[in-house]
Amino acid sequence: MPSQPHPFDPLSPEEIATASVVRMLSSLERPLFRVITLSEPPKKEIIAFLDGFTPPPKRIAKVHAYISKDFHEIFVDIEGRAVITNNILDGRHSHVDTAYMKQVEIACLDDARVKAEIQALSLPVEATVIVEPWTYATDGMNDMSTRITMCWFYMRLSDHPDANYYAYPLDIVAEVSETLEVTKIYRLPSGRDESINNDEKLYDHSKIHSSSEYHPGLSTNQRTTTRPLHVVQPEGPSFKIEGNHIIWEKWTMRVGFNYREGMTLHDVRYDGRSLFYRLSLSEMFVPYGDPRCPYPRKGAFDLGNDGAGLNANNLKLGCDCLGHIKYFDGWHVTSSGDPLKLPNVVCCHEQDDGILWKHTNFRTGNAVVTRSRLLVLQTIITVSNYEYVFIFYFGQDASIHYEVRATGILSTAPIDVGDQVPFGTVVAPGVLAPYHQHLFCLRIDPALDGHKNSLVVEESVPMPFPSVSNQFGVGYVTESNTVTEEQGLDLDHQKNRVFKIINENKTNSTTGTPIGFKLLPYYSQMLLAHPSSYHAKRSEFGAHAVWVTRYSDDELFASGTHTMQSLGEEGIASWIKQRQNDSAKAGVRNEDIVVWHTFGSTHNPRIEDWPVMPCEKMIVGLKPVNFFDRNPSLDVEVSTQAKNKSVLVGEQRPAGMPRL
Amino acid sequence: MPSQPHPFDPLSPEEIATASVVRMLSSLERPLFRVITLSEPPKKEIIAFLDGFTPPPKRIAKVHAYISKDFHEIFVDIEGRAVITNNILDGRHSHVDTAYMKQVEIACLDDARVKAEIQALSLPVEATVIVEPWTYATDGMNDMSTRITMCWFYMRLSDHPDANYYAYPLDIVAEVSETLEVTKIYRLPSGRDESINNDEKLYDHSKIHSSSEYHPGLSTNQRTTTRPLHVVQPEGPSFKIEGNHIIWEKWTMRVGFNYREGMTLHDVRYDGRSLFYRLSLSEMFVPYGDPRCPYPRKGAFDLGNDGAGLNANNLKLGCDCLGHIKYFDGWHVTSSGDPLKLPNVVCCHEQDDGILWKHTNFRTGNAVVTRSRLLVLQTIITVSNYEYVFIFYFGQDASIHYEVRATGILSTAPIDVGDQVPFGTVVAPGVLAPYHQHLFCLRIDPALDGHKNSLVVEESVPMPFPSVSNQFGVGYVTESNTVTEEQGLDLDHQKNRVFKIINENKTNSTTGTPIGFKLLPYYSQMLLAHPSSYHAKRSEFGAHAVWVTRYSDDELFASGTHTMQSLGEEGIASWIKQRQNDSAKAGVRNEDIVVWHTFGSTHNPRIEDWPVMPCEKMIVGLKPVNFFDRNPSLDVEVSTQAKNKSVLVGEQRPAGMPRL
């Protein structure tokens, strides 16, 4: 870490240690630390610093801790080693506590009624029962002021610790209280409707099968036909990194990281011009479509409840990335307040991406071709069964792409052999993979040549026909509307609806239009849950694909700051509603705005997603539109064999034959 | 070439030479050959051969040639060296003849009135006037029974032969007849409407600028920061290729190539199971949205008029592709009937594509990760100013992706300095890049475990609420409809509308549903031209995103077989209309069907697309849905550093510093 941290730098381990000064707050009980993270300075302070007018703002830590069972939010002045504010967050819950969840598992398996219920199943003798504790998605059936954990049951049928227990969902479920008591245990519905056969308690041994293992230690037929492919960079990578500052091919940016959002990007510039103040995944929600009680309780906020940072994988050289790789570590805090390293949570490397641009002059036969090099910033998270790969790609043409890959293992539920339901897919005998959605919300805080930006909705529309100015019926024009009030908007590919972020104060001298960037959205179905459902009220961002709000330092999380067992109506739609009719607060034209893009997948599982899912890709883009004065990648060096050293394949020996 | 060609193999040079036996047809005049290509055998004959029941069908050549000014279509039995049929295609035109186009240019520049008009412009002394001849998109203003060529004028202001003349569109246009006479020369509109200032003849010298060159010989500031990146495959590629047959990671397929479609794929199988009989780009249309006469004549069928095969680039090792590359040559015919080699028109190589699948067992901490290797089949075409990159990607997970990249130079028109129009972008002084669309039609001829397939439209819909079976308002189900009649259909991401090709005769034994593949469409605006326009009548496929038809040997080209100056109403919608109400012909349920996907871009140019355009990507996918019994890439070897040999980046020297 640099000695003088940049305002966007995450807290260093030394700073985390300093912030644990809050241990002093209670002489009786040691705080149980949940979070010590950077409290990002107010934007106006950072801008003043970035513009060179002021020294860096104070380093402030935000601390979440339980002290005497109260959930505290404490702000600490690092340099001053002093608590600034200390509040109890009444009725709020901290994000998932893995230590607590482990206790829940143990308590559940120790419970006599649970034992009896398992006994009644008459499982195979080699079975090991696994309890998978899940947070409780609010459904109106219980008081949410204390934690309730849903315990789903599975079994493992092999001694191998990585045997896939999701292949054996059992039809019992338990609810565990804040105080680790099993408050309910009951059978799950296992057929078309909610009816439960309480007479037939026995596990159906015909569900036992052998096709659901993914671990190489458990599968016999590994293909051996894929020959090695190395990315070799004889002169090293093209990027330069100092601390969290990355310089690459005219791009500069700062990488941030926190327990909740994971990787964040700050002060993103191209060729010295400001583009984005902050880019981050704001939230994600995974609601399940199985209507049968208690399945509506399956609905995970993987950022707000679990933390993309906390669950970030320790990326491994040569496994998760090829070529020359720079890794970034993250820092968190132990429950006792000590700095905790999260190693290799972000990787940075380059990729070749095929042709960047090409033209052959047909008159001279001369081809000019350039290859596209990308800067890749990747993080991967594991949230119980699923994994998500989050990647920012920076292009030499000043484009940014954000890719999400969903992989991992489907969440499963039991189903009677031979049965089918219209809200799930049977992926193995007795294994239902229920339909669900993955809804992501990308937060785009633009700063295109300054902080006063606007959102324009542009459509391509046919000119009236017949008309004097469109005699042949082929004419079309673009029609643009600048959004004036905060709102949610929808995509419409049939109108080629384009969302452009522009700076109305800067005109492109050639095109005569404002400089801008456009969003290349990922077309997705929005939330399917009914607007009056808790799912909908809790994930307001899922109602529209594009949202625009006036910037506020407090609004980073589209479903609100505290999602754990939240009751809803504290997300992006609620912020907008609160400010509506107050143009001083809700006006978004030529103001400091934030654009949010909701996208994802309605994931109705295929059997090909089982037992582990090949990545499903979702890609969002940001591209300059009349921002520069021409193709910003025009100066990329022409591609040559001398530089690229490819190899011609001539006559071949068959694949799989002995190696040369 | 193998001694015994496979029925899908393109004609060998020897076969082309044999087919020129048709020279004998006229004792008086030597034929002017335009095409000698494989006439693909009827599907039923090929199936009988593939299934092992019959020897390979006869090799038949289709020959297009002008003989005594008549346009002939001749079928020749190769082995028998005999003409089978010989017909004159009355009222039809062959695809663009570059030799003729060159004659048009010369005739145009030789014309006295043209010379006078150029003289009147008073161009800079260093100017070289360039005539860019374009085919005439039918607009109802002329008789289309003879060829008319539109000649657009540009100038080059540098001695460099690759100076970008599209940067200097002149405001004159000429029309040239079949017999090389300039029939009209007139001024182009250069402002908001069609009005033409015939008084002001002088070229506006304030349009001269220096920012529009793309050739490295003409630009001074090449960036030098991009360090080399090599793809090294120490054991060679994982594919095996014999002739046109490719074997790679459980995939097998045959690569075809012809003058019109360029690359085609045949008999595509995974793990021995039949998936697709034929995959090809059927047609593409590029209509311009500038309504001012004569611009509605800009509307190019780049396959039917120009030929994706004929215009395929000679791909260069290390420039157009990295790693170990196998190239395929194409063969065409000279005007005198000799075989003409089109070298390196298709390249085949492998790419790494990041994570294929990953799961970390949070209980054991054990991560299992595999990397995705792709097989890439790429072809690139140049059609005057534009280039298109067409790529098939095959995945280890049995997915196929088809990617189109649009690059090259925008077609430009003159505009008065300081003016703007709502149907184009000013990209340089006096240079208008008019709005236009690129509409592609991918032809998908499925053979999922056999040739009787169906198309299903599936939507994800919320369950009724409130209702007993959906108490919490979160339930949703899929609703499926099997298409019974030929038709065009539209996309609807808001309903998560999914198009599945299924085989109703084969049930997945685990899911209990028919085996299938789903289309991952590229969401695009359809044709903007009015349905009664010639553009719309000629490009019927542009009206809907997905079409399903009953297979017919004659229906490969969605805008009809002869698009040059066509009058329309002979494309996919017309085929369907002709057969409607005849269920014996129009039924598509459990029949041999073809699915067509129309996609593309409404390309309203950005200045960043100038003077050469960074690739715009459009991607379509095909993925198995309950076709296999589990993830078909489950057996891919786990990713290890031992195999992948990545390099850790530690402390860095700054980029741009002297190399080590």
Automatic annotation (TrEMBL), chains A, B:
Residues bearing 2',4',5'-topaquinone? 386
Q: What is its EC number?
A: 1.4.3.-
Spell out the post-translational modification annotation for this entry: Topaquinone (TPQ) is generated by copper-dependent autoxidation of a specific tyrosyl residue.
* UniProt signal peptide: none
Q: Which PROSITE patterns match?
A: COPPER_AMINE_OXID_1
Lineage, top-rank taxon, reads Eukaryota
Q: Which cofactor does it need?
A: Cu cation
Enumerate the spans annotated as Copper amine oxidase N2-terminal domain. 6-86
Q: Can you tell me where the transmembrane regions are?
A: none
Q: Which residues form the active site?
A: 302 (proton acceptor), 386 (schiff-base intermediate with substrate)
Q: How is the cofactor bound?
A: Contains 1 topaquinone per subunit.
How does the annotation summarize its subunit structure? Homodimer.
Question: What is the protein name given in its UniProt record?
Answer: Amine oxidase
What organism, scientifically named, is this protein from? Melanomma pulvis-pyrius CBS 109.77
